[in-house]
Amino acid sequence: MNKIQIIQVLIAIFLMIAILLQSRGAGLSGIFGGSNNIYLTKRGLEKKLFVVTVILSVLFFTISLTGVILAK
Questions:
Q1: How far apart are CA 40 and CA 12, in angstroms?
Q2: Is 0.70 surpassed by the pTM of this model?
Q3: How far apart are CA 23 and CA 26, in angstroms?
Q4: Contacts with 26 (C-beta within 8 Å, 6 or more apart), sequence order
Q5: How far is CA 7 from CA 13, 33, 59, in A?
Q6: How does pLDDT run across 3-20, given as a tens digit for each residue?
Q7: What are the structural domain ranges in the chain?
């Protein structure tokens, strides 16, 4: 494995962890008609985790694209 592949695997692992740490507020209540129509903004740790997830996804896309370009 070269350096780009190792970095890609590490970013993928951190991205999976960040996605799994995010909690959904709706759950199964929306299926049975118990949906909550209140929009809540992200604050504190939840907002930081969201920003980290977006940054990791952009990095993953960029590293993947770089790997494809350099493989040619």
A1: 28
A2: yes
A3: 9
A4: 35, 36
A5: 10, 44, 10
A6: 899 999 999 999 999 999
A7: 1-21+42-72
